[in-house]
């Protein structure tokens, strides 16, 4: 099945779905860097990328030539070399939000793993502050509402993730709204992060967790029952457990679904087998996101167009998914949420289809 793993791309966006006011709850900063920006940042910092300018785009984006999950992940980690820099950190956060705004996203939760981007002169706190400055600039420029989720990474020790949790909580009233655990998932690996998530919960941040992406539904159950996650990153493997599906439905746990990414990371082997329609029809809350929009050459509007074409979602349902996303957003201000709610409710397709 690996031969065409990466030769899948979301369709061009339906202009109506681009105009739909959208909530994007799951985008990684490290998978959002424009190729031209990466080149400029390398030039400005005198970093030798080892490739000519024309090779930067295929180094960052899926081309269809990739042969393994490692090839995909290498595209994301290729960006790390230019990101240990304050100006770069502000710029990539700003541009990620700018690109989301241009796609019609009105509420954006960007996430990133600060521990990868520290240096002797840039602490975890400095990285977070730089990202927040970039997001505030995007809010001022584009009118998009932006919040930040801090990602702990599974290759960091619990001692590191617990310190990170305290740092994230310190930014609670500055724009950090949630905490996540990302990185290569293994069945049963969440146990060692219980203390990390206890700190986050007591600190009052929202909790999401990459779980049930490639490992089984037990990780989803643990994230909900023991880590008190109210949202799950991906969770597509929940499909194999009726008990976990019931848990998600009864506790109204939202799955942050990223269909194209799920193909590129082999979480789902073919798009026709993606469970997004089954989740929706079983009243499990879902949102649709782009995960690594540059790496996977997608945007939320393209993912929604994919749902429309492949799974017969109609436009009212695609709007409903934005409403579900907003209700599960980690945004704290009630008045801001109400303004966003009114924008989504006011949208009406000019052409009724489906
Ligand atoms: Zn993700």
* CA-atom Rg in angstroms: 19 Å
Q: Kindly state the mean pLDDT as a whole number?
A: 95
How many structural domains does the protein architecture include? 1
Number of helices: 15
Which structural class should the secondary elements be placed in? alpha/beta
The fraction of residues in strands falls at 5-15%
Q: Quick one: how many beta strands?
A: 8
Low-pLDDT stretches are: none
Q: What would the principal axes of the Cα set say about the shape?
A: globular
User: Which sequence of SSEs, written as H and E, runs from N to C?
Assistant: HEHHHHEHEHEHEHEHEHHEHHH
What can you tell me about this protein's structure?
By secondary structure, the chain is an alpha/beta fold. The protein has one domain: TIM Barrel, CATH 3.20.20.140. The protein has 15 helices and eight strands. The chain has helices spanning 15-19, 35-44, 56-60, 69-77, 86-102, 124-142, 158-170, 194-202, 217-225, 242-250, 259-264, 276-281, 300-311, 315-328, 334-346, and strands at residues 22-28, 105-112, 145-153, 176-182, 206-211, 231-234, 254-257, 286-288. The protein has an eight-stranded parallel beta sheet. Strand 6 (231-234), helix 10 (242-250) and strand 7 (254-257) form a beta-alpha-beta unit. Helix 7 (158-170) runs parallel beside helix 8. The longest helix is centred in the middle third of the chain and has 19 residues, at 124-142. The site of zinc ion has 6 residues, from strand 1.
């Amino acid at each position: 099945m690996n031969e065409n793993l990466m030769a899948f791309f979301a369709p061009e966006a339906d202009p109506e779905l681009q105009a739909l006011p959208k909530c994007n709850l799951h985008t990684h900063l490290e998978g959002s860097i424009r190729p031209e920006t990466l080149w400029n940042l390398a030039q400005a910092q005198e970093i030798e990328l080892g490739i000519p300018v024309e090779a930067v785009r295929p180094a960052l984006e899926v081309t269809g030539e990739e042969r393994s999950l490692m090839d995909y992940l290498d595209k994301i980690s290729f960006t790390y070399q230019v990101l240990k820099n304050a100006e770069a950190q502000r710029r990539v956060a700003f541009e990620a939000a700018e690109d989301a705004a241009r796609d019609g996203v009105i509420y954006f939760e960007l996430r990133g793993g600060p521990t990868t981007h520290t240096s002797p002169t840039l602490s975890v706190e400095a990285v977070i502050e730089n990202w927040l400055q970039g997001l505030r600039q995007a809010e001022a420029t584009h009118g998009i509402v932006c919040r930040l989720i801090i990602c702990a990474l599974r290759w960091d020790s619990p001692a590191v993730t617990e310190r990170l949790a305290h740092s994230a909580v310190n930014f609670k009233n500055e724009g950090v709204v949630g905490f996540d655990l990302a990185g290569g998932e293994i069945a049963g690996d969440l146990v060692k992060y219980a203390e990390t998530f206890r700190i986050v919960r007591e600190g009052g941040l929202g909790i999401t967790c990459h779980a049930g992406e490639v490992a089984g539904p037990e990780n989803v159950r643990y994230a909900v029952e023991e880590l008190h996650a109210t949202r799950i990153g991906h969770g597509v493997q929940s499909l194999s457990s009726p008990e976990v599906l019931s848990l998600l439905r009864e506790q109204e746990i939202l799955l942050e679904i990223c269909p194209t990414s799920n193909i590129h990371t082999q979480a789902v082997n073919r798009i026709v087998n993606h469970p997004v329609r089954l989740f929706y029809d079983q009243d499990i809350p879902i949102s649709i996101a782009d995960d690594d929009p540059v790496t996977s050459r997608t945007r939320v509007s393209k993912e929604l167009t994919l749902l429309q074409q492949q799974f017969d979602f109609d436009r009212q349902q695609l709007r409903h998914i934005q409403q579900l996303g907003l209700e599960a957003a980690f945004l704290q201000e009630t008045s801001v949420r109400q303004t966003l709610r009114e924008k989504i409710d006011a949208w009406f397709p000019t052409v009724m289809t489906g």
